[in-house]
Amino acid sequence: MNIEKVVPFFAVKDMATSLAFYTEGLGFELQNKWVDDGKVRWCHLQHGGAGLMLQEFRTEGHDSKQFSANKGEGVSLFFFCDDAVAYYKELETRGVAASEPSVGNGMWVTHIHDPDGYELSFESSTDVAEETKLSEMG
């Protein structure tokens, strides 16, 4: 058996809000979707080699699920990219509130929380000194 990739699956409160965040805000592309009663209930998103699946579950009926308001608490994904600082600057132009990039473990890192509280971190290798913040780069 050869495992090729893993694609995280997130339960979301409001699919329209999450789709806008991931596609318009972060630049993911919609690869596949399931539409039920005229509403997108599940989708597969892709950005380069990184994929995510999102699903908005019904709150009533045989296939319903109940989640706490803080379902993203404790869940973190780390996306390794060519240039986290450039991606941070791109996110700024799209109005996405990401943390100021700083260096940790030899990586530039910027963090974002999605509408459901999932933590997304974007990292790229650097030889800049540990704990340097982007604003200190002059």
Quick tags:
alpha/beta; 2,3-Dihydroxybiphenyl 1,2-Dioxygenase, domain 1
Overview of this structure, please?
This protein is an alpha/beta fold. It has a single domain (9-59, 71-137), classed as 2,3-Dihydroxybiphenyl 1,2-Dioxygenase, domain 1, CATH 3.10.180.10. The protein is 15% helix and 35% strand. It has helices at residues 15-25, 84-93, and strands at residues 9-11, 29-36, 39-47, 50-55, 76-80, 102-104, 107-113, 119-125. The strands form two sheets. Strands 1-4-3-2 form a four-stranded mixed β-sheet, with helices on one face. A four-stranded mixed β-sheet has the order 5-8-7-6, with helices on one face.
Shape: elongated
Neighbour order of strands in the largest sheet? 1-4-3-2
| Oligomeric composition of the shown chains | single chain
Q: What series of H and E elements makes up the topology?
A: EHEEEEHEEE
CATH fold annotation: 2,3-Dihydroxybiphenyl 1,2-Dioxygenase, domain 1
The domain tally reads 1
Strand content: 25-35%
Mean pLDDT: 92
For the record, the CATH architecture stands as Roll
